[in-house]
Amino acid sequence: MWIRLRSGHNSDYLFPSRVRPDRPISTRQYARLVDHWVGEIGLDAATYGTHSMRRTKATLIYRRTGNLRAIQLLLGHTKLESMARYLGIEVEDVLALAEQTEI
Questions:
Q1: Cα–Cα distance measured from residue 74 to residue 59, given in angstroms and rounded to the nearest whole number
Q2: What b-and-e string marks burial along 18-49, b requiring 16 or more CB atoms within 10 Å of the CB?
Q3: 3-state helix, strand, coil in the chain (%, to 5)
Q4: For residue 57, how many other CB atoms are within 10 A of its CB?
Q5: If 0-12 CB within 10 Å is exposed, 13-18 middle and 19+ buried, where does residue 98 land?
Q6: Rounded distance, CA 24 to CA 47, Å?
């Protein structure tokens, strides 16, 4: 929806830089936007941030699908152990699920 509103294409950056439209905004600018949006809806910006949203999204997808490979790709993690720690699940559970999943 946002891309259509700003007359963009699916291949465009969601939030292009004002200085260099062919590049995305910086991670710092994105964090400022999130802080602003969180404050605008009356939530505590110290509680919500870009990292917590990333982790929450991955955790929700994992809980709904159980698809470890999808989560691993989304997060860009190379090791199952680091992904398990990130999601707050037991490494043994992740390894058992991974062994059951064929690629």
A1: 11
A2: eeeeeeebeeeeeeeebeeebeeeeeeeeebe
A3: 60, 0, 40
A4: 13
A5: middle
A6: 25
Q: Which residues contact 35 (CB under 8 A, 6 or more apart)?
A: 45, 49
pLDDT score at 10? 63
Question: Residue 62 corresponds to which tokens in the numbers above?
Answer: 């994992």
In angstroms, the CA 97 to CA 103 distance is 12
Place of tokens 């009356």: 42
Task: Give the Cβ contact number of residue 56 at 10 Å.
Answer: 11
> Residue 9: what pLDDT?
66
**Segments of the chain scoring below 50 in pLDDT:** none
- Sign of torsion, CA 86 87 91 96? negative
